Amino acid sequence: MNTESSRMPPLRMLLLADLKGRSVLRERLDDHSLYDPHINATMHNLERINILLSGIRKVCNRTIFTSAAIDPVKAITIADLGCGGGDLALWFAKKFTRYGIDGRIIGIDHDPRVIALAKKRCEPEPSITIVQGDATDLTHLPDPIDWIVSNHFLHHLDSVMATRILKTAVARARRGIIMNDLVRNRWSLIEFNLLCRALMPAGHTAHDGIVSILRSFNAYELTAILAGAGLSSGATIIRSGIGHRAIVFRR
Q1: Which CATH number fits domain 4-250: 3.40.50.80, 3.40.640.10, 3.40.50.150, 3.40.1160.10?
Q2: C-alpha dihedral sign at 169, 234, 59, 70
Q3: Which of 172, 186, 195 is nearest to 52 (CA)?
Q4: What are the distances in angstroms from CA 223 to CA 87, 136, 169, 228?
Q5: Helices within the chain (DSSP H only)
Q6: Where are the domains of the chain?
Q7: Cross-strand bridge partners of residue 145
Q8: Which residues pair with 148 in a beta bridge?
């Protein structure tokens, strides 16, 4: 087993890390051209992070699946930008079944390796379509799209692209958007460091998690992005999970 926790920066280094600006470091998973024997372990850990830390399911429950929101709904289409291994898409499918909703989920990711995993995993669920493509190009999404959702996606973008994505997503989504991501601050680094050493040592999780936090937007930067997208009064920034914030816009 590849144990990445031993390669994590010492805690004292994280305490001294410069967080004034976003890092330009690359995640190991960013190189899509390489065969990666650790991708399965990394995807498994990302699912655990989604469940234990990210809060994305909690936010979606409170936004998409409240009784008031689903009562008049017969069908919902959700686009999952940067869908990874498909765990969030599968969770949506289970929620549709529970509430008797005629639902459709479209998962989009650029990495052919994780797309292969997602397609295999989601193949038994007919409500899910997994597509390899550029998740920043929303022109390929079918009409109508009710909700556009992402998790751990925005930190891969620069501020200009993030602004454009938010503006375009709000224009396309009939009901709203949820963009959940990491928070660049000291506590996020420390919490992730400790939890990853204890619970998720395999794969690239340790390295890429730290890099992802260093690349993510802080609260001031997110506020500026919302302003640039014309969403200062329409969208809210909420704490979603441990070391995570979500941008929520609901019509």
Answers
A1: 3.40.50.150
A2: negative
A3: 195
A4: 29, 20, 17, 9
A5: 11-15, 39-49, 56-63, 67-70, 87-99, 112-122, 159-172, 186-199, 205-215, 219-228
A6: 4-250
A7: 173
A8: 79, 177
Question: What's the CA gap between 131 and 62, in Å, rounded?
Answer: 27
Written as six digits, the tokens of 121 are 């995993």
* pLDDT by 10s per residue, the chain, length 251: 344 444 555 555 666 677 888 988 887 777 666 566 777 777 888 888 888 889 999 999 999 998 767 777 788 999 999 999 999 999 999 999 999 999 999 999 999 999 999 999 999 999 999 999 999 999 889 889 999 999 999 999 999 999 999 999 999 999 999 999 999 998 888 888 777 766 655 567 777 888 899 999 999 999 999 999 999 988 999 999 999 999 999 98
Residues comprising the chain, all counted: 251
Rounded Cα distance, 225 and 161, in Å: 10
β-pairing verdict for 75-81 and 145-151: parallel
Q: What is the pTM of this model?
A: 0.89
In angstroms, the Cα distances linking 225 to 36, 103, 123, 242 are 34, 31, 36, 22
**Strand 244-250 relative to strand 236-241, pairing:** antiparallel
Tokens of 50: 């989604």
CA distance 83 to 61: 18
